[in-house]
Amino acid sequence: MKSNWPAPHIAPEAPLQFVINAAAGSSAADAKRQLIEDALQATQRQGNLIFSGPANLAQVARQAADLAIANHSAVIAVGGDGTINTVAQAAHALGCPMGVIPQGTFNYFARTHEIPDDPAIAARQLLEWSPWPVQVAAVNEHVFLVNASLGLYPDLLEDREAYKARFGRSRWVAFWAASATLLRAQRRLRMRIEQESAVRNVKALTLFVGNNRLQLEQLGVPPRLTLPDTPGHLTAVMLRPIGTLAMLRLMWHGAMGNLGTAEDIEHFSFNHLVVRPTLSPGRRGVKVAFDGEVTRLRAPLHFQVLSKPLYLLKPAPTSNAASAEVSNESHDA
Fold it and tell me: Can you spell out the DSSP letters for 80-143?
């Protein structure tokens, strides 16, 4: 993407700050430590390895990004979508370049930016990459790189984590968890949507906002609405209230990768969307998911593209279209 923000400089001799979602001393932490140390040794780079549990991850990420800024370095997220999102919040706020060593189930963000799924390969290669601007979106004050949603989708994520805790982490477990959630979906989401000058009241099972081309393509969203074909825009997908049989048909569309053609699905692109959900008496917040994390936010919800990009360590764009997007201001600054 084109950016008016200057590309940050990374000093080759400065130590990189690795934020690792794992308890120090655990077998998982030892494995992550080894692959990072091997990569640093192979490239003769320096790095600080910072381990943290989920409870302290946001604070640790902020401290690591502060240190990276002071040393003209970068902060590296080591983990799944939740870890990447937490580090991105800190890196984006401070204007710190960021790298990713993916260790999640789907790794949409990493795969979209041609970062290898294999953590060992990603760890070695990112040490040779330069920072490039990528689009960042937000719902209220929360940054998201892949998607944000309310309604049925946050319930699906919570059920998926419960299934994973019981049956292990795999794409099949995620699929069966999603199927179980969809088949018992009953609650309707009533909301007022404001898009530029258009205002309407809608009923839906879920509102899903995508900021990732790969995931939108896998959902079967029409190519004209996927990213980054329309830079500076997000894609909304709404599922209307339907019965069990219609839900089964919808699941079939999803399995075949043509969800975007289902008659019960509405999709549209936007730059800024205001959502005012109807809340139960006494309830002041609404459950919202972003990049796999679930929390409650106060309404109204503002979904928008942020003008300031995130500078990501990634391979240089290879296509003519991608090169045109990043060539002008991002690396001339």
Answer: SHHHHHHHHHHHHHHT--EEEEE-SSS-HHHHHTT--SSHHHHHHHHTT-EEEEE--EEETTEE
Report whether 226 contacts 259 (CB < 8 A).
no
- Cβ contacts of 151 within 8 Å, gap of 6 or more: 187, 189, 204, 205, 206, 207, 239
What are φ and ψ of residue 176, in 5° steps? -65, -35
HSE-up of residue 190 (Cα within 13 Å, Cβ side): 3
CA 63 to chain centroid, in Å, comes to 21
Tell me the mean pLDDT in the region 270-299.
88
Q: Which of 40, 44, 94 is nearest to 70 (CA)?
A: 94
Candidates 45, 42, 22, 44; CA nearest to 33 is 22
Mean pLDDT of 57-86: 95
The owner of tokens 């309604």 is 151
Q: What global pTM score does this model have?
A: 0.81
CA–CA dist 225, 213 (Å, integer): 9
- Encode pLDDT of 76-95 as tens digits: 999 988 899 999 999 999 99
Query: What are the Cα distances from residue 149, in Å, to 229, 236, 291, 315, 333?
Result: 21, 9, 9, 29, 35
